[in-house]
């Protein structure tokens, strides 16, 4: 613990201070409303953090259901029409031998969203019920959710590119399906959910620094 | 008010609270090129990157050029049975708009083009004024705040992975070739990651707040 001497041994909140989330300036809590340096709104913790996290997470989860049921892409050609859901799209890639790309899409469209639902819900539950779980584990999980969420957008961009590019009239046309709309909504709302969760809540239950 | 306040008398500006866990630290002078991290959770507290303003300015200006190129030039083209089609990045957006996916079209437009542009312009604006000592004005504070808010929503690199996946998906359906905008977008991704290497958020806020005081 080489750095032990440069800490005060308490949080800003315990010292009656709040940190500006943008410029980092500290303020005395009851007095300050907006940052004296940069003008941003000051609050010690994000307002109703858990409530917002749950609200966005539930919307994201609800949108993920139609995203998997409805087709995300409709292929029209002279040999007939076919439609792909997220899952059949991955299967088609795997069957055509593009294993690596199939795995990338599987991770982005299935693993990451599901992992995010589970991790965010787990973190929120653990904060709500104050489960005994190491702060460092929870801190690590929180960092992961903030980092991975945006990568789920891959499938949305794939559909956008294919729908724009494959416009060869009667020979071959690809159109976006209703599922991709729901999928994009699901990604956006889980991103909101992850940013609503205030990481400082993870540490508030503990009184000693490690 | 500060019932648990430390025994030493300290000025506010000598203290730093961890953004991730709120743990209070004394601000230390650190060497150029090094970073201070939180003693409790390990999150980064502040950094001192060398020539941060100059390099960030250079990278964001380069990024703006790459972004304009990648939006205007042809991006991909394909041909099959004598029919060919060529698209720019904006066509990917208008395709969604045309097939009654207006909301999704707007979202993609924002994520691929608008938000990255806005973020780069805001950064370039703040860095130019700092670099040439044009004085600190209030709009620079909001510019910095928005540049930070927009960071997770600028998705050029994710779009690029999406493009590569699409190329693999249709490689056996048609002959594909990539256009100049593809390489411009690659340049944009490189400059964006350079910005995250060069940009020293804490130093910029220090410059903004101490010079204006």
How does this structure look, described?
The complex is a heterodimer of chains A (210) and B (213). Chain A is 53% helix and 12% strand. Chain A has seven helices and six strands. In chain A, a hairpin with a 2-residue loop joins strand 4 and strand 5. The model of chain A has no long low-confidence stretch (mean pLDDT 85). With 213 residues, chain B is of the alpha+beta class. Chain B has two domains: 36 residues; 161 residues, no CATH class. Chain B starts with 14 loop residues before the first strand and ends with a helix. The N terminus of chain B is likely disordered. Chains A and B meet through strand 1, strand 3, helix 3, helix 4 and helix 5 of A and strand 1, strand 2, strand 5, strand 6 and helix 2 of B.
Write the layout of secondary structure elements.
The complex is a heterodimer of chains A (210) and B (213).
Chain A: E1 7-11, E2 17-19, E3 26-28, H1 49-69, E4 73-77, E5 80-84, H2 86-95, H3 99-128, H4 135-148, H5 154-165, E6 172-176, H6 178-196, H7 200-204
Antiparallel strand pairs in A: 2-3, 4-5, 4-6
Chain B: E1 15-17, E2 23-26, E3 35-37, E4 44-47, H1 52-72, E5 76-80, E6 83-87, H2 89-98, H3 102-131, H4 138-150, H5 156-169, E7 175-178, H6 180-198, H7 201-212
